[in-house]
Amino acid sequence: MDGAGGDVLRVPLVGSKAELEAQVGVELAAGEPAxxxxxxxxxxxxxxxxxxxxxxEEGAVxxxxxxxxxxxxxxxxxxxxxxxxxxxxxxNPTPPASVMGxxxxxxxxxxxxxxxxxxxxxxxxxALHFASSLLLxxxxxxxxxxxxxxxxxxxxxxxxxxxxxxxxxxxxGLAGGGYENPVGxxxxxxxxxxxxxxxxxSSFHSADIPEATGGLNLLQPRPVxxxxxxxxxxxxxxxxxxxxxxxxxxxxxxxxxxxxxxxxAQHSYKYWLLxxxxxxxxxxxxxxxxxxxxxxxxxxxVFGVGLSSLxxxxxxxxxxxxxxxxxxxxxxxxxxxxxxxxxxxxxxxDAASPMHGHNWVIAYSRPVYFCICCLLIWLLDTLxxxxxxxxxxxxxxxxxxxxxxxxxxxxATVFTLCFPFVFLLGLLPQVNTCLMYLLxxxxxxxxxxxxxxxxxxxxxxxxxxxxxxxxLYGFCLGAIKTPWPEQHVPVLFSVFCGLLVAxxxxxxxxxxxxxxxxxxxxSKLFPELEERSLETARAEPPDPLPDKMRQSVREVxxxxxxxxxxxxVLTFAVSASTVFIALKSVLxxxxxxxxxxxxxxxxxxxxxxxxxxxxxxxxxxxxKPQEYSQYEVRGAAQVMWFEKLYAGxxxxxxxLIYPAVVLNALTVDAHTVVSHPDKFCLYCRxxxxxxxGLKLLRSAFCCPPQQYLTLAFTVLLFHFDYPRLSQGFLxxxxxxxxxxxxxxxxxxxxxxxxxxxxxxxxxxxxxxxAFAQPFAVPHSAMLFVQALLSGLFSTPLNPxxxxxxxxxxxxxxxxxxxxxxxxxxxxxxxTRLVTQLDRNPGSDDNNLNSIxxxxxxxxxxxxxxxxxxxxxxxxxxxGDCFVLASDYLNALVHLIEVGNGLITFQLxxxxxxxxxxxxxxxEAITEGVEEDEGxxxxxxxxxxxxxxxxxxFGQRWLAWEVTASKYVLEGYxxxxxNAASMLQVFDLRKILITxxxxxxxxxxxxxxxxxxxxxxxxxxxSLRPVRAPGYADSDPTFSxxxxxxxxxxxxxxxxxxxxxVHLDWIQYCASRRSQPVDQDWNSPLVTxxxxxxxxxxxxLGTASHSMSASLEPFLYGLHALFKGDFRITxxxxxxxxxxxxxxxxxxxxxxxxxxKLHQDHFTSPDxxxxxAALYDAIAANEERLVISHEGDPAWRSAILSNTPSLLxxxxxxxxxxxxxxxxxxNRRHLSFRVIKVNRECVRGLWxxxxxxxxxxxxxxxxxxxxxxxxxxxxxxxxxxxxxxxxYPIYVSPLTTSLAGSHPQxxxxxxxxxxxxxxxxWLLHSWERLHKGCGAGCNSGGxxxxxxxxxxxxxxxxxxxxxxxxxxxxNTAGSGDQALPPGPGWGPRPxxxxxxxxxxxxLLQWPPPRLPGPPPASPAPTEGPxxxxxPGPGPLSSEGLSGKWSLGGRKGLGGSDGEPASGSPKGGTPxxxxxxxxxxxxxxxxEVSPHRAAQDIPCLNSSALESGTxxxxxxDWPAAAEEHESPAAQPLLEHQY
Length: 1536
Fold this sequence. Notes:
It comes from Galeopterus variegatus (Malayan flying lemur). By secondary structure, this protein is an alpha+beta fold. Helix content is about 45%, strand content about 10%. The longest helix has about 35 residues, at about 640-675.
């Protein structure tokens, strides 16, 4: 390096982007020009707006020499950015052809003159040195500067600036080849000025180039080829000579980088030791983050230090005790080091991490598991040495012996040494997941609890079970400690049995999630907190779901309050009756046989007969629902006889058979323990009996489909196969229930594995799958061992990368997902206004269609539990997965918690327009196999309604089965029409504009603020000019092609032309108002309508870009107005700001209603020609139809509230489409196919996706693990994973469905039992007895006849409101419905025929009213019916009802009743008012005539339809007299 090169400050190479940015900031702040490169100090004032701007964009730089300090700094920044880009990318773009163009001729002449005046002996610049060194070996190599832009001769050197401002040169070689190299940056200002003087040219003579006082300044020589005057980098191909020596080339590159890079500043990190005291750590922030994890607080630091100390202490303790020797000491030290280092820098991502990115919980997994294992090793060793417990033999296994403890200690020791391998495979979950899993398993398998939904709910559920067990333990211990007399059961044991069954029943009906229960308690105890939360949430539309859930939980609690008492009393009575002791030799086998027979018929035979393919042999179900043969379902599913039978048998099984089985086992075992004490102490026996009884009863109440097999295996194994191993039937049953649950898991896993790897149906999604298929065959034994372990610990068995190689994953609870990725709908309530107007967020199909899955979740929340109890989904259990498939909805339903009358589930909705793989799997689950006639390679056919051999074989090798093909559920049918096709021509747009105008007029006339608008001075003054003669609004947005009232003469919209078209419609709308208004053509109403219609059309034109006649701008503007984006840009329309309701209540609904009317126009074009028809249509649509933008929160609220019809204009912007659709929704009942999927298949595929995407980081969107596999529905299951692993368009929160919300099941069972319902039933029974006795004792009739005329059947006291003055109008049975006057006042019963074959009675009721004074008593031939004088008091001993007459009640014997010939007078005494209790259930009073005829057997339906009574005309009194007959009141009360 010569002198000039020595002026450049040499600094080390910049190591990172952060260091470079920090270094530049320091240099600029310090203002040190010495460290800046020469080009940065060069005058950048040549940024001319002409050629330089273009060249800088293309990659060349030029300009004049001009000094500026501010631009020096900007040039330095650009230079630094250029170095950074070269450092990161390693390559730089080259200038385009425009840079290499020819310079002006005057510049060329000036360059030639300067070249002649300078000596050729001057030193060449560094670029020429570089080119000369490369071409020196060739004879006659002529390295020279290019004279013109077109000079491409051998050795010609061109200069240019790249896009980063770096000066470079290019030297042409042989056959178009060449070399690109940077030019050495000079420090002299004169040299920079000399270069800038020639900025208009990129080719110079050697005399014009500043002398290079430095040596070679190489950065990175790159061979390039110049083709078409564009520089490209290609490999250098010069075979005639060799390049520079590689070692010297690298040395020169390093020297160049050392010269160009600025000095690297030293950074340090301040580590605070004490307040005000810190030490410097020689690391920058990014490097320190790469070395250590950042802690989030002091508590986390303290916990980390304490946990690390505990790891060291426990490791030292085990090493001190000598548990490890030889090489295992080193291995154990490695385990200790890995656990401690994970607290400093955790493994991210970990194999057991359920989330992307940094997971702070996973950092504590290794040390926590290490501490637990070390404590377990130390505890087991201590117990083995001390032996505090006597050895116990249970089922042939010796427990609590020294060898038992030492064997368990050795297993824990080996497991601890295998920590690196265990955590590499991810066999242990993170700590919170493990805690939730352990608590859930203990609660489910130990106490019969249900699945947990979170760690908090797991703690709550287990605590509740422990509290119940502790309460029952005392009663059980006290019962078995006292001696039992012969053939007698102690009272304390009967109390224990009653409490056990009652508490088990109550716990089985409660959810593990206490959120709703706490909300109900808070609303009762702390109402002020509830009001405060309601005030905060009042801005959003109210969600009815929380109130419904609280009401359902309230009904369950009220029912349990009664039922638990009843169950406890009945159980106490049965247990105290000594039936279990007296018949213990026979009763047990009778109960076992009965439970097995009922369970086999209920849970095997009936579900098989109801399946779509019974036993995979028949092609149709044997027991079909009524909707099976319907092409389109019209209503709710009908309850069939076999559904009632299934529900009834389940009730008998749950509430009679299994409680009797458990009580029998409890009594026999307790009697045996008291009579013959065994090796267990009484305390342990009491504990085992309590826990086993609680678990078995709760399991029988919650999930009866699996109980009959468990009971059968228990009887066969311990009564016939190995009776000597029996430890009592109760304990045997408890152990077998635990074993059967694990065997079910193992069976499902083996089915999944065999189905997935079957060679005749394997689908290889990648080359790895083809390789792994034969590789997995020799490892079948290892696969079976993994299946056994995974079944024992309830862990998923997942295919590695979707292949045939299976590995065991870590244990998960039934909920499976540790995190809640519940999707959130994007609408106007959670996005900014500017985002809504500009980018229209959430306009993709997936976000808009997610609302339908949310509505489907709400529908399932009402009906799922009841449908499962009716057997419509077949057998079910906790963790089962089902797929609901319809025309466009495909959802996966995951059952999580299964209780007694409650189901907690989660729904995952898939895309409407799924991928190719998803469509293939949807076709597989929806297509029928009845047409398959193949048998191996031939097609012999099949028997009628029987599957062919190929179809039956193929259905057996699937991980799913169709359980129902016609499952009816309430939802929305979706129809979408392309808006472009409906508005393509101008005539169709004109129709839309016309309906737009008429809708605006309609809303103006219907507005309650019309009088205020007409009298508003500002509006009147602004609209006064439109009535002037010759006025026309000539806005360019109006045209004859779309505006029907366009005035050609005035070239705009005028009031006369507007009135000629729309005046009749305005007058008709005004005539429908209750208050008259002026309707002349120049009235304020017409003027206001004209102004609003002009404003609305101008807003549409403004949003549609005014004069544009194409369809896309028009649709864009229509959609903008539809979503409420009105932009008032004309000063003539600013009067509308006087009241914003003119926009919100008139113009905005007008454009939406116009779209609906325009759509109806295609079905019946002439329907709305008459104003009356159009007015009624708009009114009807306004009442029953919700028209809104899908981003409006009102759209979601309308769907979730089950609005009958909705309409929206959707703008879909996908990658491949940009279109507008008119969406029409109609609420109706939809038909779904229910497919039950192997739950272990779902869990295994989910676990495989989590491992592949989170741990292995396979981001390939076409990876083999998501390719379609019809036998396992691999794509649909993997697509339903939580985001971002899968891509469902909707993931619901955990939703609980209760049986009480199912209307059909509620009608079948009669609703929940509560104190209020019992009181209503008693009052209703008393009322029937009251009326029946009154009619029977006085007329000689029977109770049935009195019911017909006296209000029997399903009436209640709520239909008899207490009235001070009973009249025919207010005694019709309903206070909300008035009786219509006239002869058709109401249906009258005809007693001419009783309907059961008996002769008609002699007396017609009500009796005919004869003219003249009323007789003293009726004639005996007309039916002996003595008249009764008015009673003086509330209780009358003489009358139609005798001594049973109760005052204050309307009816035949009430104090307000009158004889048939009398008229009502007087009222009910005030003292009798409290007797009229209004305690009726929620029974609708709106009863149709047909329903009334069904409720009253003696009514003739033909008479109801005709509206006239049957029988002779003389049998009925006149209508006016009927209103005065109080004797008809009981019949009317029952009837209405």
